[in-house]
Amino acid sequence: MSVSRNETSSIPVVPSRRVRLQKHPLVSFARSQPLGAASLLVILGLITIALIGPTIAPYDPAAPDFDRLQGPNGSNWFGTDELGRDTFSRTLYGARVSITVGFGATLISISLACLIGLVSGYFGGWVDIVIQRLVDGVMAFPTLVLLMALVVITGSGLIQLIIILGLIGSAGTSRVVRSAVLVVRQQQYIEAARSVGVPTRRILMLHVLPNCFAPIMVAATVGLGGVILAEAALSFLGVGINDPNQPTWGQMLNRAQRFVNVVPMQAFWPGMAIALAVFSFNMLGDALRDVLDPRLRGTR
């Protein structure tokens, strides 16, 4: 039996699996931002290492079981440090500290920055002036000097370090949130919500904050790299996490600098880990900005 042209045109066309795969958001992101997609894979690898590092580490990172200051070999892929500890195992364990500090401090920073930016940008007036002067006061201090002073006062534990880095990092991020709120609050749907008597808290949580998601996401991604770098700097200077049973990349760099002329690879591995982590987070932040910013998306 023949099928008429009208009946044929009315049959819905189901896209093939290949077409659906090409339209997947992750595939589109990888095609438009290959460097950002590669950075995302590196970040996922770092998170995986942080989660299962103790399981796949071949040796105890605190046990001096080998000859000191050995180069890479069959038993110790990254060599050994000045006490005979396996550098590869210590590098894996260091990823856990960096990722924990990075995500913990960024979560605190973004949460506090959203609160400050929402209140300051939405209400304006004297509230905005007071809050911004306080933010200016925090940002006026040299960040590294302020971090060192607070760590010395409160102690160099993991929890203290996360809280301090989160609090200090929220000042600059709040400026980003405030700028986005200043734009969103001028939109007509905000005026419409006010005119019908929607409570301010509901407007902030359901209308203002979701429309500031793109800059907040970019700031959080870039901030992660900054937090990891700050933690490594503090540990390198000797005021970060100094527990020898809890290795960090900055701590390993600090110890390796004394023997860099003997075994230069001891400084290479933690330095490369820090550089790779910070670079990946920065590149992912730039890629997300290109994808989420409508102005940049319109010019592509």
Explain this structure to me?
The chain has 300 residues and is an all-alpha fold. It has a domain at 95-300: Orthogonal Bundle (MetI-like fold), CATH 1.10.3720.10. It is 73% helix and 0% strand. It contains 14 helices and no strands. The protein has helices at 5-9, 17-22, 25-32, 34-56, 87-123, 125-140, 143-154, 158-184, 188-195, 200-208, 213-237, 249-256, 265-292, 294-299.
Shape label: elongated
DSSP summary: helix tally:
14
Stretches where pLDDT is under 50 for at least 5 consecutive residues are none
Binned, the helix content reads over 70%
Q: How would a textbook summarize the main sheet?
A: none
The CATH H-level superfamily of the domain at 95-300 is MetI-like
Q: What proportion strand?
A: under 5%
Task: Give a short synopsis of this structure.
The protein is 73% helix and 0% strand.
Task: Produce the secondary structure layout.
Elements: H1 5-9, H2 17-22, H3 25-32, H4 34-56, H5 87-123, H6 125-140, H7 143-154, H8 158-184, H9 188-195, H10 200-208, H11 213-237, H12 249-256, H13 265-292, H14 294-299
Entry keywords:
mainly alpha, MetI-like fold
